[in-house]
Amino acid sequence: MKIQQDHARYKRIVRGKIRQNLRRYMSRGDLIARKGKDLVTIPIPQIEIPRFRFGMKNTGGVSQGDGEPGDSLGPGEQQPGSGQAGDQPGEHQLEAEVTIEELAEIMAEELELPRIQPRGKELIESAKERYTGISPVGPDSLRHFKRTYRRALKRTIASGTYNLDDPVVIPVRQDMRYRTWRIDTQPRSNAVIIYMMDVSGSMGEEQKEIVRIESFWIDTWLQSQYKGIESVYIIHDATARRVDRETFFRTRESGGTMISSAYKLCERILEEEYPAEEWNVYPFHFSDGDNWSVDDTQECIRLLREQLLPAVNMFGYGQVESPYGSGQFIRDLRKTLDEAENLILSEIPNRDSIYDSIRTFLKKGM
Predict the structure, then answer these.
(1) Which end of the chain is more exposed for a tag (fewer CB within 10 A), N or C?
(2) How far apart are CA 196 and CA 199, in angstroms?
(3) Residue-range domain boundaries for the chain
(4) Nearest to 40 by CA among 107, 96, 123, 117
């Protein structure tokens, strides 16, 4: 049908517009606020079918009316918010709804991302009990009272002993009905992302916004590679704690910095909840690189080398530039752990660098 052809053509145009402006979208925080359960709403320039547009009569134009050499042939530019009310339409933006899967495909095409090859089992099976039927035998704890009463009522009416003036129904043994169950094995995600963020005094709102935007795009890509994925959030200053997503991005900055506190908590969570032989693990740590001491940095390097890197698919460290941070941590990691293939380092000086940082993480580290 022609309507289907037009719809498909429209979707191709939208995808092209998104690819064309992907770098700009990946630096904007308002896109995340538009995220629904399965859809993302993206503002794109108005898409119009080419057509002739006729001007007003007797208003002059090329080869019409009075004029002098050098006069402009078109209307002058007018700043937004200036001028008087008028009756002419302005320029508008179209909001296109794109599924998370489509967004991940566009992202993969533009950034040339590889297909992830999960390690270990592709899925973990978890057992779940489901009540699926009714049986004449079973424990009293599973007695189905409605079915039992209905059976007893039918028997009483069929035998002619039911009395409308005294409607007493007493179930007997053969009336009893019980719920039955079966155990279903259900596939469960075996991938987890662990986000760690420095919330010390040197990490301001702009730095956290950069982390929030980059985390959204990392989530989008990894969710397209795994059917469901679990996320863990850790914030730290001089101490670390596990929080929910909202707290992760809304915690105000304060305190000093001990990066090892986050790595120790990450190690404990992996050991207790996400064993390396069963889970694909992707930790990402974001900081401004200002650690408390050289000794704590050495402890971080030890934890990475001996505990974390052997247990994860990839460990990504993103250093957000801050006017208050020293930025030394990433230099220490490059100097001591340069041989680690699954440690990916990225410097993020500003929002415009998010695009390249994500390409660094996802193209090299999967």
Answers:
(1) N
(2) 10
(3) 1-49+93-112, 125-185, 190-364
(4) 96
- The position carrying tokens 């937004």 is 80
The four Cα atoms 254, 259, 260, 265 give a dihedral, to 10 degrees, of: 70
34 token code pair = 């538009």
Question: What CA–CA distance (Å, rounded) separates 303 from 272?
Answer: 17
- How remote is the C-alpha of 30 from its chain's centroid? 14
| φ/ψ of residue 213, rounded to 5 | -65, -45
Map residue 281 onto helix, strand or coil.
strand
The number of beta carbons lying within 10 Å of the beta carbon of residue 280 is 26
Instruction: Quickly list DSSP for 63-122.
Output: TBS---TT--SSPPP--TT-S---SS----EEEEEEEHHHHHHHHHHHHTPPPP---S-S
- Protein fold of 190-364: Rossmann fold (3.40.50)
Tokens (6 digits) for 350: 């500003």
244-286-348 Cα angle (round to 5) = 135
Residues 291/303, Cβ–Cβ less than 8 Å: no
Tens of each residue's pLDDT in the chain, 366 residues: 567 666 677 677 777 777 777 777 777 765 655 555 566 666 665 555 556 666 666 655 555 556 666 665 555 445 555 555 555 555 445 566 777 677 778 888 888 777 776 665 555 555 556 777 888 888 888 888 889 989 988 988 888 888 888 888 889 988 999 988 777 665 656 889 999 999 988 888 888 889 888 888 888 888 777 776 889 999 999 999 999 988 887 777 677 899 999 999 999 999 999 998 889 899 999 999 999 899 999 999 999 999 999 999 999 999 999 887 788 999 999 999 989 999 999 999 999 999 899 889 887 655
CA dihedral 126, 127, 130, 132 (to 10 degrees): 110
For 162, other C-beta atoms within 10 Å of its C-beta total: 15
Q: Hey, how many other C-beta atoms are within 10 angstroms of the C-beta on 184?
A: 12
CA–CA gap between residue 200 and residue 190 (Å, rounded) = 32
